[in-house]
Design a protein that fits this description.
The structure holds two protein chains of two kinds. Chain A is an alpha+beta fold. Chain A is built from six helices and three strands. In chain A, strand 2 and strand 3 form a beta hairpin. The chains are: A alpha+beta, B mainly beta.
């Protein structure tokens, strides 16, 4: 009933060797690693290194490394919820219970907890940074590539040239 | 039906003419069951006999008239009380009187117009049927017999391909092409997806056929979407310059012809939905309407010949169901229809 010509492929441009074998244009890797706890006793906090490698033109730096703590991730999440149109993925838990006194263990600074949190933060930031509608938010770029987050910044979109 | 009173006093049976030569077609009933009814086309005469058998031999059946109607109607499920009859013909078979013995009454609705195709959907149903009524004092005896109507279209003279470049600025640019804009029910969709820019991490790509049934008008419009087919066309991450072929055989799916604004009551339209899924399960899609039509096939021509020339070779050889050797019931090859809702979808906008 259907002749060979009726179902034959539509012809298309042949892919150049350069396109076929070049590194893909979607390279984006973010690692959250190296947890360090700073300060003493009640004034302690943990931060992590957020290292990004990419070839996406929207990011100014193709490689960057900054240190961020949990509250910085919360800040980013809130900015994105307010300004971008994306459904922002959840962060790993805030762990209020671990901040209470009289625990048998080290609370927020337990190795296992820090490792779980690290994994959750890594998942979060990769998910968010890969979202086309989050990629032109100033807050994301500042979070990933500025050494210090300026909380008094003017929110907005990155203008692509 | 006479459920009250004294129960059925007579058995009524409608026997259509030419059954041995006539094809049947399957159609779903409201509760999802599949039924086979005789298949008619627009302009064909609907004729036959009404056989009435008295339950008790020797008894009498007093009546106020026996009539037969040919009805084409649209039933909206949310508005049960109102059946919209777009075709209604009636023939009086017997004047008021008495039936004293079994009878076989001949009827003919000559060259009846059947403008629309029979359709059973999620919220609406279009059906054609014969209804015999024996009018009685307390309660009528009613018997209905459905038929199925198919509407045939000529192969379109103009059937341009669909070719478009779409994308999300700086993230994903693709050019998609489908070989036609109008496909018949057993057609093949041949196409390709060409990647111009890929800055997202694509996991796979699929092509879906979506059926949209629209009922109601204005503010009361209701759309029911059903994913009739889901077909993965690519697994893995493409790069710039790659072409992904599409070849989708429609005969494997449960489709109907496109129905536009039928009697101003409902529409059934079909869309091709191209969906790309990235590694974070984000979905990027582009919907494109296609027209589906029912093509006249060769079998019908033979059937027409049989009617006019009484060619004995086209009659069945006795035994079994007595149906014609050309009977072609549409088999149930449906796949699971998935009515999914997707969150966080990015529609890929058309790019200039």
């Amino acid at each position: 009933m259907t002749t060979p010509t009726a179902t034959a492929r539509i012809s298309s441009k042949k892919q150049t060797l350069e396109d076929a074998y070049s590194p893909p244009a979607n390279f984006l890797e973010i690692d959250v690693s190296d947890p360090q706890t700073h300060g003493v006793a009640k004034k302690r906090y943990t931060d992590y290194e957020v290292r990004m490698k990419t070839n996406l033109p929207v990011f100014k730096l193709k490689e960057s490394g900054v240190r961020r703590r949990y509250s910085d991730f919360e800040w980013l999440r809130n900015e994105l919820e307010r300004d971008s149109k994306i459904v922002v993925p959840p962060l790993p838990g805030k762990a209020f219970k671990r901040q209470l006194p009289f625990r048998g263990d080290d609370g927020l600074f337990e190795d296992e907890f820090i490792e779980d949190r690290r994994k959750g933060l890594e998942q979060f930031v990769n998910k968010v940074a890969g979202h086309p509608l989050a990629q032109n938010e100033k807050c994301l770029h500042m979070f990933l590539q500025e050494p210090v987050i300026d909380k008094n910044y003017v929110p907005g979109k990155i203008r692509t040239t | 039906m006479s459920f009250f009173g004294f129960g059925q006093s007579a058995d009524v049976n409608i026997v259509l003419d030419g059954q041995e030569n006539r094809r049947t077609a399957e159609i779903k009933t409201e509760d999802g069951k599949r039924e086979k009814y005789y298949l008619y086309f627009d302009g064909e005469t609907v004729s036959g006999n009404v056989n009435i058998a008295l339950k008790k031999k020797g008894s009498k059946l007093e009546h106020q008239g026996i009539k037969i109607e040919f009805i084409g109607q649209i039933e909206l499920y949310y508005d049960r009380g109102n059946h919209h009859e777009f075709t209604s013909l009636v023939k009086e078979l017997v004047r008021p009187g008495e039936l004293t013995h079994d009878v076989s009454l001949n009827f003919e609705f000559s060259q009846v117009e059947k403008p629309y195709e029979s359709y059973t959907g999620a919220n609406v149903r279009l059906r054609y049927f014969l209804r015999v009524t024996i009018v009685k004092r307390l309660s009528d005896v009613v018997k209905e017999q459905d038929i199925v109507v198919h509407t045939l279209s000529q192969y379109p003279e103009l059937n341009s391909s669909i070719k478009m470049e779409v994308g999300i600025e700086d993230c994903l640019h693709i050019e998609f092409e489908y070989n036609k804009s109008k496909y018949h029910l057993k057609d093949v969709i041949v196409g390709k997806i060409y990647f111009l820019l890929v800055r997202i991490k694509i996991k796979h790509m699929e092509l879906q056929v979506i059926k949209r049934e629209t009922t109601g008008t204005g503010p009361n419009t209701f759309n029911e979407n059903e994913t009739i087919a889901k077909y993965e066309i690519m697994d893995g991450a493409p790069v710039r310059g790659e072409s992904i072929p599409i070849r989708l055989f429609l005969s494997g799916y449960e489709l109907t012809p496109t129905m536009k604004d039928i009697n101003k009551k409902f529409s059934v339209r079909y869309y091709l939905n191209l969906v790309l899924v990235d590694e974070e399960e984000r979905r990027y899609f582009k919907q494109q309407e296609i027209t589906i039509f029912r093509r006249a096939d060769k079998v019908r021509k033979n059937y027409q010949a049989a009617l006019s020339h009484h060619n004995p070779s086209l009659l069945s050889d006795g035994g079994g169901s007595g149906k014609s050797q050309y009977q072609n019931t549409e088999e149930d090859k449906s796949k699971e229809a998935d009515g999914e809702t997707v969150n966080n979808d990015e529609g890929i906008k058309g790019m200039i």
